[in-house]
Specification:
heterodimer; A: alpha+beta; 3 strands; B: alpha/beta; Rossmann fold; three-stranded antiparallel β-sheet
């Protein structure tokens, strides 16, 4: 993800929606419970599960092809004047609802700083750390075939 | 952003129940059916018209409407139906104000009469067993239906629409939570 000094509201929202979509329902509900109750929310579209076609492109200039379908759950929640959306991988309905609720709350300027600090930033660093660990594990087992060829 | 309200509480069962009511209304023209689902569509849309569109309209059915942006946003969100400005290209036409001319709507073709548009006409009230005399398929002898707030020249416009059969326009009359249907096969005479 590219970091600029002042990201646009859309970029910012894309960032937190991605982080919410990768977090688990337990993480979200635990952090939300620690923060205290949010204003009353209304479910506009209850969580519903469907399939989304994932498309790929070989080598960056090849023709687009259908890689396969993935299970996606979506949800929409209204909190005051703001509408939160969530599209998450898998069929965890409670996670979709929580992610949509948090997306709506994060659009509220009054709630945003506290939520960013107590939910999004810790989740972002945890996800970053998990990715780094995995990349390290993978890098440790990497075999450089070119080196083996020249060693002989 | 206006306050978007929820659609059906249970999208599957409520849409099925509403579809059943529309089917019943279509197969017994002039008989009034009630929509049981509790929805709060944005004004001026009534429960019956809102529920009918939630049940019938989807991404494949272009929609024309004469209402404001709040209704369009609600229908776009819950049905995903594309809103069109060309009334002749619309599969569903929603009219809450002065009704558009039936002749302006898509009547389908002799090969594909099912492509004819459905006019969802919101009226002031529906009263059974008085008013217009309806005869035709689905009616053993005759049914009577009074439509409060129907367009003045509706009966003569309907006769022209009915003469096009099997092509033509179907009409769903909605008032509050009541719904009655005028499929293109029904004949209307002033009561």
């Amino acid at each position: 993800m590219t970091q600029t000094k002042t990201p646009s509201p859309t970029t910012q929202r894309q960032g937190w929606m991605a982080i919410l979509a990768r977090a688990s329902a337990e993480e979200l509900s635990a952090r939300l419970a620690a923060l205290g109750p949010l204003p009353e929310a209304e479910t506009l579209r209850a969580p519903e599960t469907g399939l989304v076609m994932v498309r790929g492109r070989a080598g960056g200039d090849g023709d687009a092809f259908n890689l396969g379908e993935m299970t996606v759950t979506r949800c929409a929640v209204r909190l005051g004047a703001h509408i939160g959306h969530a599209y998450i991988a898998g069929r965890d309905h409670s996670k979709a609802w929580l992610a949509a609720l948090l997306d709506a709350a994060l659009q509220d300027q009054a709630l945003q700083p506290a939520l960013l600090q107590s939910i999004i930033e810790p989740l972002a660093s945890a996800q970053q750390a998990a990715r780094a660990t995995e990349a390290r594990k993978a890098a440790a087992t990497r075999v450089d075939f070119f080196t083996m060829a020249t060693m002989r | 952003m206006t306050q978007l309200s929820p659609g059906f509480a249970d999208p599957v069962l409520d849409a099925q129940a509403c579809f059943r009511a529309i089917l019943e209304a279509m197969s017994r023209p002039g008989r009034i059916q009630r929509i049981a689902a509790h929805i709060t569509p944005p004004a001026p849309l009534c429960t019956a018209a809102g529920a009918a569109l939630l049940s019938l309209a989807d991404a494949d059915t272009p929609l024309w409407l004469d209402t404001d942006e709040a209704v369009a946003a609600w229908l776009r969100f819950h049905c995903g139906a594309p809103i069109t400005g060309d009334i002749g290209a619309a599969r569903f036409v929603l009219s809450c104000g002065p009704a558009p001319s039936l002749a302006a709507l898509d009547i389908g073709t002799d090969e594909d009469p099912q492509l004819g548009a459905t006019l969802i006409l919101q009226v002031a009230g529906l009263i059974a067993d008085e008013g217009w005399r309806l005869t035709g398929p689905g009616i053993q002898h005759e049914h009577h239906l009074r439509v409060l707030g129907a367009p003045a020249d509706f009966v003569s416009a309907w006769a022209r629409n009915q003469a096009l059969f099997p092509r033509g326009v179907d009409v769903l009359l909605c008032a509050g939570d009541s719904i009655a249907a005028l499929p293109r096969s029904v004949m209307i005479a002033e009561g």
